Fold these 2 entries.
Entry 1:
Amino acid sequence: MEINKSENRKNKLLFPSGFLWGVATSAYQVEGGNSNSDWWQWEKEGKADNESGIACDYWNRYESDHELLSELGCGAFRLGIEWARVEPEEGKFDQEAIEHYRAILQDLKKRNIKTQVTLWHWTSPSWFQEKYGLHKKDSAEVFVRYAEKITQELGDLIDMYITFNEPMVPLGQGFLAGSFPPGFMNPYKFICAVNNIAKAHRKTYERIHQIKPDAQVGITYLYNWYESEGFGILLNSINRLAQWYRIDLLGNKIRGFQDYIGIDYYRLGKIKFDWRNMKMDSRNQTYFGFTIEEDKNNVMKWISYPEGMYKVLKQASKKFKLPIYITENGTPTRAGIDDDDRIKYIKEHLASVQRAINEGVDVRGYNFWSLMDNLEWLYGYEPKFGLIEIDYKTLERKPRRSFYEYAKICKENAVDIE
Ligand code: BGC
């Protein structure tokens, strides 16, 4: 794609022609009924605020949800494939489930919407978790077999592959903090899992390219902006360590195996040190004295920081020298209120994206997280991330005002600013 420098008109920020506007979801968070996944088990053990159950029932309602996508007028949809659904038993693929995904992808193609498919968004089949787990040596091969199958069966309908979504998040939570499956607090297993995910990604990258030489394959990074306060050198080093942990630890192991960089940017992580708080409590973002400053007005206490989006894009562009897709960006709100915060958030963050593009950063597309309210992992259904509100009793969909604001942005390829 040719990136033209975007120009500003009074009160309007224009984006380059061909800029890919999208929205993102993940399989487990919206599909419902993923009873063969390890998260399902985790929920049953009472380790998350809600059980996912039928979730948004996207699995059965995809056509009417895609109808809303068409109304939104976006050019791309990021969705996931649930590994446990297509391979419910080791080595036995469920052809019916694969055909169902085929119908989903075909429906998107029919609507002229590009498909960005995540192969692993934090959930694994229960059999995989029991027999292998990412810390075990053979886990990479088992994942590659699944990725290969999906490419053979559905590759013709996939425009962009995301092998793993933000792997450092579930690895940290699942192998160091113990709050995600498999629930370990074991640095040795953690390192093994990081190496195995890197290996699985590299091999998957190669396999997909053997089958589909022109495929676009990458991973996404949770690329929030970190800053620190007080304690000078110590906190600065912690700050750097956070950056290294989130991006470089895995990123350095998969250099040369990414066709683009997927950036998920949400917020500012302002690191503080509090010696009175020496516990490990990842739910409340407390790591042996190090905590993250909170915005009390936000339902998940997240600090919105649009400037960070600009900083992250500049940094990632220098570091990776690859085209960038913003694969997720969004903010949690409370039920029924705060949608104005979402609109403000979108516009302010897009202003930062446009600023980076004008300074030469090769950003090809932007996905808002999320199309609809969905299961927010440990926090269940309380935080609302959607342009579309879901009534979980009736599963009725109700587009919010932000839906129409974002639709306007997609259609005009521009953002109105005050
Ligand atoms: C994850 C999503 C999650 C979102 C909001 C992202 O880092 O990819 O699965 O819902 O953050 O927390």
Entry 2:
Amino acid sequence: MEKANTNNDMVVPPDRLRLKDVMVRYGSFLALDNINLVIRPGEFLSLLGPSGSGKSTILNVINGAAQPDAGSVLIDGRDVTDVPARDRGLGMVFQNYALLPHMNVFDNIAFPLRVRKWPADRIRHAVADILRRMGLEGFAHRKPRELSGGQQQRVGIARCLVYSPSIILMDEPLGALDKNMREQMQDEIKTLHHATGATFLYVTHDQEEALNLSDRICLMNRGRIEQIGSPQEMYFRPVSEFAATFLGESNILSGCLAGKDLFQSDCGLSIHVEGRPDIAVGGAARLLLRPEHIMCVTPSADMPNRFVFIVENVNFVGGFIRVTVRGRGGGRLQFKARAHNDYANLQVDSEIHLGWLPSDTVLLPA
Ligand code: ADP
Ligand code: MG
């Protein structure tokens, strides 16, 4: 007889949030196409993607503002697809703050507690406490219009945190703020994530924001999940040209896979790469080269991918230079590189030796 395996008896915490086979249609338009997503307890997960890719629709399906045409939403293992929004126990922060303009800060923050019928003195304590934590003491009696954008969003976040939801949904909460305020608020949101231990699902179209904040990023493309992974996985191991170009600066070469570890570019370069089991030898492929991996090397440098070019054109674009070079075979290669000293004295018509490591290249499907 088999002995019971005690490991199987251990209580495994359920996923905090799970979308199963979720579809959303607007007329004939498929806004969400078979979304399967698991969010772990305490995780900070960002939904990243271009405008119209379905990020807000995912949030709306989770918070009950939109009903999926198929599939289900589970919170802590419980199917809540048919549970009304207010009974799902979620916190929500919007881009446009969604504060009630005729109410002062105190009443805005107290609003969800009054809806939940908390007694007055408990509300007073809770609001005072969150005002302090959000650096909003002294603002309790102001109306939203008497606050800056950053302060209004602090009120929006305070109103969400005040009843300690275990899941917090944020839809481009910093989208209306200027760059400096956005960076400051990113730090505050990070601190809140650590302090509350809550699970965050955060929508943004800003790749830097997603890289900075997230434990994992879910990249959306036309209503589907393109890729999901840690910021490092997304940046260093993108699965597609879409993912490679959406996160970070990139150079994409088209060509074909000439051998298991050899890429032949259309511009005439034979480049040693790391093969990928799902890309067949002989088939069309793309190659990703991040700008920071392209090195100016000496003519005698011993490396597997070293090429001589003639410089045709150099453009300085902030932290990057855009260089066009011509190979011996005549093919052109345009690439971005980090603007550092290596490239300080690049002269048009001069020779340049460029090199990169096979392990720094990423093969992508064509
Ligand atoms: P994102 O938040 O990534 O910008 P959305 O989730 O808001 O994208 O929208 C995804 C797609 O669904 C868009 O093409 C949008 O126009 C469409 N859409 C969203 N809401 C509606 C609606 N209520 N009626 C019709 N189309 C909608
Ligand atoms: Mg949106």
